[in-house]
Amino acid sequence: MIVPPEELRQHLHIDGDDEDAVIRSISLAAEGQVRDWIGRPLYASEDHLPSPGAEDYHPSQIVADERIKVAIKMLADRMFAARGGEGGGAEDAVPPTTVRALLAGHRVFFWEATRDADG
User: Which end of the chain has fewer CB atoms within 10 angstroms, the N or the C?
Assistant: First the structure.
């Protein structure tokens, strides 16, 4: 996990570990949303990065910095607040503006170049 449960508990202002299973699930969901938004594999530390040539190596893989960790916490906070399924409006289709701003420098885009057969 990029953001440890105890750190997320502190961010969510939750005392005790009664909701750790929920917090873990939400944290992983928030990580997945960040990973999907930036389009690259995320890792908690350099020790977890796959080496070039490894099966799970990706050339754009990165270690989560503080901006990514804050974005994960913000998304997790939003998910925790709406864990009963409330909301579901169009604004939920993409991360909030602040989260997108935090992640903007990490986002990658891939274009497949296609050429006409005649050049």
Answer: C
